[in-house]
């Protein structure tokens, strides 16, 4: 039976972007099954009393340097998003709709949204920009965005966020292998060891 | 000419203990010259507006798990210090005295203090415990501790801490290769790359 890797993320998190690009290789090497749990990072931080790194100016400055090193190591395209911290709540809700209706479409949408935010400097909080990204990923943006208004979809994002908090998460990306929690792209080697 | 690795640390920091144990190998592989800069982590956090991880309870809980994983990977002895966050100011000042008078003795003292705090659960803020650790490391504790009261030694620790803050540090361990800064034992591979 393949082991399960639970993945809590938010498009607003550049370290989630870094981690996301490593997952295909990790899944291929381990045979693990990925369970994606979009969550609202801002909500998680509020619930846990955590603050974004840039709340401490020196941490914010170092993050820029640190991100550049990871991007270089991973050989990824990257541009810091000028709208950071952008509003990702609708993008996350749309992702939950896709996850429910069309898991393959969800994968395409997740990649497209991470790329839009962390390569193409798109503001995911801008409705027409978000619609363009969803359409370009080959999904039905009007349909997805209409469903984002459903109370059940809103509640699902809230539930993912609250579950992450209840299980000990305080940031993104956060991974679980059973009840073992791992925070950050820089712990993916520990994740991989746990999956073997 | 060998490149220089500057190393800002405090015995109170378990991640400094983890990093410290990796330095002999890194120095052997790179031929770099280590410059040790004891600093007061609490002072650095005050200056930069940073807070200890455990200020966020979920972060504090995760730190315990994370430390256990690193200890396992590095194959190090480890016990969380029951006096954490212990007062390390005198231990740091004594280290600065040793660094000035007897660089080899300093290396022995640094190892002994990290081991005392993070393996043997010693309270470095307790004067008689500190004296025992210094004596056991083969240094003259009475002499070192007497010099800790000198304004020049106190000023040196303050200057190291202020310089770390001025150069962008916000935690420990922090490494510099020229003006490139690296935070944490988990960035030592980036440090090593910068030294090559």
Helix count from the secondary structure assignment of chain A: 9
In total, the number of strands of chain A is: 4
- What's the order of the H and E elements of chain A? EHEHHHHHHHEEH
Write the CATH fold name of chain A: Glutaredoxin
Provide the low-confidence segments of chain A as ranges: none
Percentage of residues assigned to helices of chain A: 55-70%
What's the N-to-C terminus distance of chain A?
12 Å
Oligomer: homodimer
Radius of gyration of chain A: 16 Å
Major beta-sheet overview of chain A: 4 strands, mixed
Give descriptors for this structure:
196 residues, four-stranded mixed β-sheet, 58% helix, Glutaredoxin, alpha+beta
Q: Helices, strands, pairings?
A:
The structure is a homodimer of 196-residue chains.
Chain A: E1 4-9, H1 14-30, E2 33-38, H2 41-48, H3 57-74, H4 89-101, H5 103-118, H6 127-136, H7 141-147, H8 151-166, E3 174-177, E4 180-183, H9 188-195
Parallel strand pairs in A: 1-2
Antiparallel strand pairs in A: 1-3, 3-4
Helix pairs in contact in A: 1-3, 1-5, 2-8, 4-5, 4-7, 4-8, 5-6
């Amino acid at each position: 039976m393949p082991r399960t890797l639970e993945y809590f993320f938010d498009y607003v998190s550049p370290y989630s972007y870094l981690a996301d690009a490593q997952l295909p290789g990790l899944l291929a090497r381990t045979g693990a099954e990925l369970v994606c749990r979009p969550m609202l990072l801002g909500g998680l931080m509020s619930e846990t009393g955590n603050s974004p790194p840039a709340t401490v100016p020196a941490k914010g400055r170092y993050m820029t340097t640190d991100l550049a090193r990871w991007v270089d190591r991973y050989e990824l395209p990257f541009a810091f998003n000028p709208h950071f911290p952008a509003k990702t709540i609708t993008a996350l809700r749309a992702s939950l709709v896709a996850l429910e209706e069309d898991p393959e479409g969800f994968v395409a949408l997740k990649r497209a949204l991470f790329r839009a935010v962390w390569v193409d400097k798109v503001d995911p909080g801008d409705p027409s920009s978000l619609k363009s990204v969803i359409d370009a990923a080959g999904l039905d943006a009007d349909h997805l965005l209409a469903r984002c208004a459903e109370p059940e979809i809103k509640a699902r994002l809230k539930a993912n966020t609250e579950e992450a908090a209840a299980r000990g998460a305080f940031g993104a990306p956060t991974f679980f292998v059973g009840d073992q929690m791992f925070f950050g792209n820089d712990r993916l080697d520990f994740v991989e060891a746990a999956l073997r």
